[in-house]
Specification:
Elements lengths: L1 H31 L6 E3 L3 E8 L4 E9 L7 E6 L4 E5 L9 E8 L6 E11 L4 E11 L13
Parallel strand pairs: 2-8
Antiparallel strand pairs: 1-3, 3-6, 4-7, 5-6, 7-8
């Protein structure tokens, strides 16, 4: 009887612990989930296709503030040093358009690339913008020398 009572108490304690753990997990998940409420992007990715090595590949992403309050970009962080970003520094008023420009340095980087820029806003939302493409390393053909000496 005492053994059954102890077993029941352990089960109840485990149920309470699991319920508390599930509630904490649900809260943490929703707290860190980054929604895009109030931000309407024209596009969130851009494929440059096949591009020549040398000049920077650059694209501008545009979004509309659909909230009822001004929106400020607090950061636009590229995923690596080969990618740079710039963005609208002033508050974007409701109904107005903001921009994030991403550029990829192609010089000395042949082959496929896919990079991201994490854009964060003052309302707690964030968006990952993606750029990709293939850098071709075109070399001049070797001169033909058909003359016999």
């Amino acid at each position: 009887m005492v053994q059954t009572l102890l077993y029941t108490q352990k089960i109840n304690t485990m149920k309470k612990t699991l319920t508390l753990l599930a509630a904490v997990l649900a809260f943490v998940t929703t707290s860190f989930a980054q929604t895009e409420d109030g931000i309407k992007w024209e596009k969130k990715s851009h494929d440059f296709g096949s591009i020549k090595m040398g000049p920077k590949a650059e694209v501008t992403f545009r979004f509309t503030n659909t909230t009822k309050a001004p929106l400020v970009i607090t950061a636009a962080n590229p995923s690596c040093g080969c990618t740079a970003s710039d963005y609208t520094k002033t508050p974007i008023m409701p109904g107005k358009v903001g921009e994030v420009t991403a550029s990829y340095g192609t010089d000395g980087r042949p082959g496929f690339f896919q990079k991201s820029i994490k854009v964060s806003f003052d309302n707690g939302t964030s968006t990952d913008l993606i750029i990709s493409g293939t850098v071709n390393s075109e070399t001049a053909p070797a001169p033909k020398n058909n003359e016999l000496k």
